[in-house]
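Researcher: Here's my situation. A collaborator sent me these components and asked whether they could plausibly form a single complex. I don't have experimental data yet, so a predicted model of the whole assembly would be a useful starting point for our discussion.
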Amino acid sequence: MGIEERIFNKELHSKITTAEEAAKLINDGMIVGTSGFTPCGYAKCVPMAIAERIKNGEKMRFELHTGASVGVELDEALAEVNAISKRLPYQTGKTINKRLNDGDTMYLDIHLSQVAQQLRYGFLGKMDVCIVEAVCIMEDGGIVPSTSVGNTPTFIQEAEKVIVEVNTTQPMELVGMSDIYIPKDPPARHPLPFTDVSQRIGTPAMPCDPRKIAAIVPCDITDKTRPLAPLDETSKAMAANLIDFLQYLYGDTLPPLQSGVGNVANAVMAGLVESKYENLKCWTEVIQDAMLDLIDVGKLTAVSGTSLSPSPDGLKRFYAGIKDYRQKIILRPQEISNNPEIARRLGVIAMNTALEADIYGNTNSTHMFGTRMVNGIGGSGDFSRNAGLTVMLTPSVAKGGAISRIVPHVTHYDHTEHEIHVIVTEQGVADLRGLDPREKVAVMIEKCAHPDYKDMLWDYYNRAKREVGGHIPMLLDEAYSWHVRFNETGTMKI
Amino acid sequence: MGIEERIFNKELHSKITTAEEAAKLINDGMIVGTSGFTPCGYAKCVPMAIAERIKNGEKMRFELHTGASVGVELDEALAEVNAISKRLPYQTGKTINKRLNDGDTMYLDIHLSQVAQQLRYGFLGKMDVCIVEAVCIMEDGGIVPSTSVGNTPTFIQEAEKVIVEVNTTQPMELVGMSDIYIPKDPPARHPLPFTDVSQRIGTPAMPCDPRKIAAIVPCDITDKTRPLAPLDETSKAMAANLIDFLQYLYGDTLPPLQSGVGNVANAVMAGLVESKYENLKCWTEVIQDAMLDLIDVGKLTAVSGTSLSPSPDGLKRFYAGIKDYRQKIILRPQEISNNPEIARRLGVIAMNTALEADIYGNTNSTHMFGTRMVNGIGGSGDFSRNAGLTVMLTPSVAKGGAISRIVPHVTHYDHTEHEIHVIVTEQGVADLRGLDPREKVAVMIEKCAHPDYKDMLWDYYNRAKREVGGHIPMLLDEAYSWHVRFNETGTMKI
């Protein structure tokens, strides 16, 4: 099978088996954890074999816990056969998304830094099996993660049994890139000693009692990372607005950056490639293409995350230059990468995207029109509440202008007026620091809203102020009238 | 003047003056910080003298920053003469509350742990003067706080000038009870080394360059702490429900407790006096009467907070037994007492009250019917997002049953479904851990809602599920129909 040379504990060679055999360890009603955070470093062969069993008529449903979203071989394959009874803590696939919105799959939207801790605390039940993609297995049973760490260290610790997929497409040079540390639980927990992005406090492998390893499966399927869309004008404008503001606020030296997942986040980092900034550092969650660009041009000196999630082209580039990149990149458990303690201590600049924002400075990052889950809150809340500066980005409109993303009141609240400092659209930057909600209104409308909606927003606010008043003027029976109008007429415009 | 013996730096004796003279240091347009967190340890004589100047015809308005709410001699006296242009970060007085809801005073509702940091970061402007109640002034200029610490250490550090009110009603035995530590700012910030409630990391006095001390004023006005209402049946029932649940979850040993301010919080702690628990610890914000009771019966071995805020009777009791109490009590800056880092590390049980909660597990702690600010978010968010267990308490109804506090959707979001683990009413306990929003609905309705409203809540949810569906079924045009109905008919009932 050719994977023996990646299993340094000889006794474990007897555990090498097929995905089909390993899949038999999963039974109806179980709680199953897998590696994976974004479509990187996720279990692939065994989930597909489980899906195959179900396709062949076996009745089986189980809970699926991961780091965040994962690749098609895992979430989509299992969602297609409706195998997932409950899912946490994040997702992006079309089928899993439909399942959870249709109610076939229950879905918990938890701050990503909290998952491992809540599992250890017993809040999420007892994990039966975890399935881990590995680069190799060490003599002591320690499992070396591949392109993401996520919640895997704690899953391994908590699960009854461990299945390892040794993925031969993941280069051995990944060994040593991760820094694995599981906090003890209270009252024995220690301070996390980080005072800099590039510190290491743990081990290269995820500790695992070799007796827990129930099966080892060879796998040669590559990470199916997502392509990035070309940078569009709106994203570029948002990035430029934000970078101008950061320069105004911080001058020539920026604190460590956290940047959300996706095209807008990537555009911001890409904007920094063109900027005058040098000696940048990222304390973030997901490492995307533009961070590799920043390393290439020598502007990013250290990046810490939990997942290496570039585009397919970016992944090729990373593999080709791995010996250099790994000098600058550290992957950590998401409990560490997203930990409030560190975001606050380092004074991280948190930059995340929202679906909509309101005139009082609240944002909705998860539920379209209050109801339909898009992806999840992810790590945005871990950073937004604790960062040195909390920035949310959103285009001012959607659907060709039929939807204003700046609304009287958001339909779901993920990040509140209490924690958001700055909101950025392609129109401009709303600097909300130090403002009363009523002062925020003018800034939000004049700096962030699309010109087509400014008068409508002022009309709402002025009537609310006149008719109701108070600290946050609100017309209860009109709060979501814009969304209702869109549902009825296809546009928020009157 | 009789306060010389409390000013150990002899050169500072020349700064002793009257409140009227000191008040002249405050001018129109300034940012003024004062000591005080709840009606404890707040500046009293100088604010009253400022109010007197304005009563006598002087035109003057300024920003007022404090630790939290303060006493009548400060907030009320200044609000009555409309002297406060902007206020942060918390308030409880009738006049200041009317001012900010009427729009006379702008008001920032910030997580309390964030205030000092945001001032140092420049987010809140440059502080001109701070007015500090002190027990005494040390040889090196260090100022010993009295019954609260709040944001005062950072205010002293950041203000151009410092006015000290040496309050001779505050006993010298308070010296040594506080532990003052100001975190450095990034990138020089260190881990907060706490692994236990009773650790000390700082100094007894708040460092102050003696040259900044512009005036020292004798004061003999006592803290006007608030009386506690007698424990009512509803509060007792909530407390009993919660304590039963904690026993179910934790067994015989509880992690450190954080308990919000007010009668409900006090009822929970009072419930623990009767419980079998021993060796309790509090890592909290405000120290109220029942914590003194717990110390008296030997059940509370250590309590850390930022304010000693018992009732008038409790304060007398504290003063009488100060030599014993101070062995168990430590007051810290609110940036430390409320720090996310520590709440998470210690696995604190956070227990705070809400105005209303919704069937999906969100709560509103601040804005009545979305609009009218009650007191503020205070420290609840610092703890709720980072605690080991996050509990919110609210009675199931208000206004004799005309208002259900369990509603389809809250009208303002302070604590979201992402972070709340448990909601408690006098009806029961909703254990929301590990549940999808749609699973939470049944638990919220059956365990927490008042029987009069259960059918109405089910009706809303079932229609929302049928007509809209999705992860969080929501009827956009009915979201706040219960609140609208109350406004129109005087009851939420149909």
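Model: Some features of this prediction you could bring to your collaborator: Chain A is about 30% helix and 20% strand. The CA atoms of residues 184 and 190 of chain A lie 7 Å apart.
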